[in-house]
Amino acid sequence: MALMPVSDALAAVLAGVEPLPEQMVSLDEAHHRVLARDVAARRTQPPQAMSAMDGYAVRAADAAAIDSRLTVIGEVAAGRPFTGRVGAGEAVRIFTGGVVPEGADAVVIQEDTIADGKSVTIKEAAIVGRHIRPAGVDFREGDILLCKGTRLTERDLALAAAMNHPQLAVCRRPKVAILATGDELVMPGATPGHGQIVYSNGFALHALARQEGAETIDLGIAADTLAATTAGIRRARESGADILITTGGASVGDHDLVQQALTDEGIAMAFWKIAMRPGKPMMHGRLGAMGVIGLPGNPVSSYVCAFLFMVPLIRALSGRSVIHHHRERALLGRDLGANDQREDYLRARLELRDDGTLVALPVSHQDSSLLANLAAAQVLLVRAPFAPKAAAGSPCEVLRLPV
After folding, report:
1. Which residues lie below 8 Å from residue 322, measured CB to CB, with a gap of 6+?
2. What is the rounded CA–CA span in Å between residue 368 and residue 204?
3. Hey, which of 82, 96, 211, 282 has its CA 20 to 30 A from 111?
4. DSSP 77
5. CB–CB of 92/101 below 8 Å?
6. What parts of the chain have a pLDDT lower than 70?
7. H or E stretch at 207
8. What is the pLDDT, as a whole number, of residue 255?
9. Are 86 and 103 in contact (CB under 8 A)?
10. 149: alpha, beta or left, given left = phi > 0 and alpha = psi -120 to 50?
11. Rounded CA gap, 151 and 31, in Å?
């Protein structure tokens, strides 16, 4: 099978994917969930004109001249409106958040007044509307302020609460099951035997999936047997996973059994080789509604492929309005040679010059087993297939890695 271009592979992973069903959750449970519907305000904010400062509510015409003296006829505090009306020559003491009383059209801040018992002297001329928040200046009932597909921030939750929504309709979180394969893997903390290595891929994959809002299911490490690999795949189906991620066993060696196990379970494989580096031996298929991504075993390849393919799939299932990674422009920090037929994703550090220019400096060793270089990188520097050699200072494109 010919190597599939990265763009075609991503299109295949996302083909036919629809957001998961909606569910109602409380505001306390809604942080970083994705809205399944537009949200309209149930009230006007503020509902009436409110004072923005502590001072005196007046008629601007009565307080237009310095040393105007007005009679104080009452007081307004937040939640305790004044029921009367401000007439000629009158003022009402008002505090921030208080409803501006009928008849008043300005607020003079207390620093610009001199209080004397039942009267107040104006030391700064009043201006109509000054220090008053008009009714509806924030929003009005019926305004759509949060849109379907929004991943809710803490600021969005504050807005939803102010709009008088105790609950919100969000898309169900995708369930991501992660299955590692390989006789050579031992868990962190164990003493590896001869030829064994410490398992690391799953910890990054679980964290990456959870960061994108998914629930994760740990299927553990399957031995290099067809029976063990098949059992892991069946546990993913039984768990109700929306996505099955396998790591390792995705190549073509005698002990790389994932593709055979997936095919034997009825999974239609869309591809199993991609024109990218790192991550050429990546697989994708579907079993009913469950999408399957078979990641390479090398830790850098595993992470880069998960970042490029698993993350957009999670976002699509979550109902996000933006699912693709944003590419940024930068300058190369060092010379690069010509590229071959595979799209390259170089691990790179990102520097910000004093003039605001971003500079991407690829790490010196790009081997797909080097986790220290991956951890030190801030971006993936993207190089197109057959890109010519490029000198330091040339423009390039980068994808920021999560922080």
Report:
1. 149, 315
2. 15
3. 82
4. B
5. yes
6. 1, 250-256
7. helix 201-211
8. 47
9. yes
10. left
11. 8
Per-residue tokens: 86: 């401000």
Q: Is 300 in contact with 252 (CB distance < 8 Å)? A: no
DSSP-derived 3-state class of residue 362: strand
Q: CATH 3.40.980.10: which residues of the chain?
A: 6-20+173-318
pLDDT tens across 56-110, in order? Answer: 999 999 999 999 999 999 999 999 999 999 999 999 999 999 999 999 999 999 9
Q: In the numeric block, which tokens belong to residue 185?
A: 């893997």
**Model confidence pLDDT, tens digit, residues 218-256:** 999 999 899 999 999 999 999 999 999 999 976 655 446
Per-residue b or e along 8-26, where b marks 16 or more CB atoms closer than 10 Å to that residue's CB:
ebbebbbeebebbebeebe
Torsion of CA 397, 400, 401, 402, to 10 degrees: -160
What residues contact 109, with CB distance under 8 A and at least 6 apart? 53, 54, 55, 124, 131
Query: How are beta strands 283-287 and 268-271 bridged, if at all?
Result: antiparallel
In 173-299, DSSP assigns E strands to 175-181, 185-186, 197-198, 215-222, 243-247, 268-271, 276-277, 283-287, 290-295
Q: Which fold has domain 327-400?
A: Beta-clip (2.40.340)
CA-to-CA distance for 189 and 349, rounded, in angstroms? 30
> Domain 6-20+173-318 is in which class?
alpha beta
CATH 1.10.150.120 fits 50-133, yes or no: no
